[in-house]
Specification:
mainly beta; 5-stranded antiparallel sheet; single chain; about 35% strand
């Protein structure tokens, strides 16, 4: 089944159709993330993937409180 426009963009997410919640920029700022994209950030409630839309493209930035990796912010380095 193809992912919907609101599906988690992480390829490793086991719950790609889990709700995607709008993140509070304050939560990310408190974790040490100070970037313009935080005002648009969304988080997958299934895997903790944090992402935002850049035009038609979803941009993954990291994980926040991932149930397997760690609590807190874990950035994706590209």
């Amino acid at each position: 089944m193809p992912k919907s426009a609101l599906s988690c963009p992480a390829k490793t997410c086991r719950s790609p159709d889990a709700p995607q919640e709008k993140m509070s920029p304050g939560a990310l700022t408190g974790a040490g993330v100070n970037a313009a994209w935080t005002s648009q950030a969304r988080r997958c409630t299934g895997c903790g993937c944090v992402w935002y839309m850049d035009g038609d493209r979803k941009v993954l930035r990291g994980y926040f409180n991932n149930p397997v990796l760690s609590e807190g912010w874990l950035p994706i380095h590209s």
